[in-house]
């Protein structure tokens, strides 16, 4: 093979790799801060309530006594707090700052209750019955 042919092939390979690297950098920069994940563990609980066949539950009895309208056949329970998990190995801190004391370092996939998603880039969580903070960059919100 001639030198010019080899040079042309190498320049083509370098060009393709450069474009690929630029595309990957663009994807990383524009990625969403929070990923909404639908998992089976966060499924909505659906309970059938039949007033004629089974004894009334406390909420069904209260609904029947307060309103003259019929009670719906299906009652959906919605989660009261947001749940989250870590996207990588990350530090849990006692304040919303990189200079704050590290309470613990947890592995990827550690789940917790989200108390508040703050505007300063930190998320207040409930971890082992204590309020703590984790960088929002490493939080995946499991339910909305």
Question: Keywords for this structure?
Answer:
9 strands; two-stranded antiparallel sheet; alpha+beta; five-stranded antiparallel β-sheet; 25% helix
Explain what the structure shows:
The protein contains two helices and nine strands; from the N terminus they run αβαββββββββ. With about 140 residues, the protein is an alpha+beta fold. Strand 4 and strand 5 form a beta hairpin. The strands form three sheets. It has a five-stranded antiparallel β-sheet, with no helix packed on it. The longest helix has 27 residues. The protein is about 25% helix and about 30% strand. The chain is elongated.
Q: How are the SSEs placed, and which strands pair?
A:
Blueprint (H helix, E strand, L loop, with lengths): L2 H27 L15 E4 L9 H9 L7 E4 L4 E5 L3 E4 L8 E5 L4 E7 L4 E6 L2 E6 L3 E3 L3
Antiparallel strand pairs: 1-2, 3-6, 3-9, 4-5, 6-7, 7-8
């Amino acid at each position: 093979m001639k030198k010019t042919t080899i040079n042309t092939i190498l320049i083509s390979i370098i060009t393709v790799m450069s474009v690929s690297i630029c595309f990957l950098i663009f994807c990383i920069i524009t990625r969403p801060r929070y990923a909404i994940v639908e998992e089976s563990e966060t499924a909505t609980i659906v309970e059938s309530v039949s007033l004629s066949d089974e004894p009334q539950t406390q909420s069904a009895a209260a609904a029947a006594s307060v309103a003259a309208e019929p009670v719906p056949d299906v009652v959906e329970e919605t989660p009261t707090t947001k749940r989250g998990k870590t996207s990588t190995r990350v530090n849990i801190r006692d304040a919303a700052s990189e200079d704050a004391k590290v309470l613990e370092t947890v592995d990827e996939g550690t789940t917790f209750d989200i108390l508040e998603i703050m505007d300063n880039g930190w998320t207040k969580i409930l971890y082992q019955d204590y309020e703590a903070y984790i960088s929002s960059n490493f939080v995946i919100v499991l339910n909305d």
